[in-house]
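Researcher: Let's try something more involved. This one mixes different molecule types, so please make sure each is placed in the same coordinate frame as the others.
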Amino acid sequence: MTYELHYWPGLQGRGEFVRLALEDAGADYVDVARGPEDAGGGEAALVERMERRQPTPPFAPPFLVDGDLVIAQTANILLHLGPWLALTPIDHGGRLWVNQMQLTIADLVAEAHDTHHPIDVGAWYDEQKEAAAARAKAFREQRIPKYLGWFETILERHGGQWLVPSQITYADLSLFQAVEGLRYAFPRAMARLEDRLPKVGALAARVAQRPRIADYLLSPRRIPFNEDGVFRRYPELDG
Amino acid sequence: MTYELHYWPGLQGRGEFVRLALEDAGADYVDVARGPEDAGGGEAALVERMERRQPTPPFAPPFLVDGDLVIAQTANILLHLGPWLALTPIDHGGRLWVNQMQLTIADLVAEAHDTHHPIDVGAWYDEQKEAAAARAKAFREQRIPKYLGWFETILERHGGQWLVPSQITYADLSLFQAVEGLRYAFPRAMARLEDRLPKVGALAARVAQRPRIADYLLSPRRIPFNEDGVFRRYPELDG
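Model: All components are placed in one shared frame. Result:
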């Protein structure tokens, strides 16, 4: 069965957390909006699928179509995929813990987004640069250390390679993506911080070296970071 | 078995979404930080439980202790409780859909919070009032209609009383809380909007009339809305 991933073409955004899980597992999927229009792809196909009169409409991309299920919200998609991709523990408590970590990454990602859009998600960055500078300062100095410090603590406590000591999970892949995004958007702030986050850094390196992830990162399927995504490099926001 | 809910005393905040589910189900729970210190309660008990050296530390309250499980992130707590409280469907797809709606409410709640803290969650509202006014305007004019309009659409499509037509779920209780919070924080904006949201309004009224919820809302367990919570009444943010 082929999964249909629907996300805006041209940016990593929140869709990337789903892509990494599908890629690491070698799952069969199509990235619908990036496909050719004459084969049912393109952005119009995404919009049609989202706006169709259906009982469970997505609020926003990304969403996954898996047979009869139409599933939105990044963490919810991963909650669904986790067992099928063997990227979550088998036990209930373990799955809740992975979901909890994923939701905390989602909060971090939302805050990273708001560094360039602190006032109005519908307006341009240039219209909210002053507020963005202030929000980015608080994010760099307080929020990134708090979030990544929490993950460092988790890894320190059990001494294992992954967030769940017994196995890799989708939360590891997502933490890699968050760290990569923060390095892209805030290279100076992250360079100052990373000495205090050796285990998070080692985890991110370990994810990047997984064979399927390494292949993916070098493939044209991996969209480069850019200023349309969640993580944007605006040097004035990097302090 | 008694559930232990841990949340900051003195405000509804995100803990309220969990309280409403526990109350509607008539579940046995203690609201730890609101209990007397000589019986193991108080804010110090919450902090101790959160900062204890444990393998799955909460990033922030609310968190629920259920036997050996320590579960944080509001939507994750409800995902866990849903089946035990009979507040979620039995089937996998139904549970994912309820979780998806809950995560969308969580996004709405985070944006409501950021109307009074658009720059720095660690600073006072008075230090970010100008940015707050701008963010609140975008929130009132674009975001509230988009979020609540989505729920209205869901209810219109199936014509039922609850978000899932076959039964009440924790997402209904949370939507009630979100609507009540928005009415408290943005009474003028909501008064203008509600004509266009008859089904959402009727759902909220239906939740308030459920016997256990009606009792709860009149009890001292229900903390009044106030300016320490997520939803704050600052008239200058209401346009």
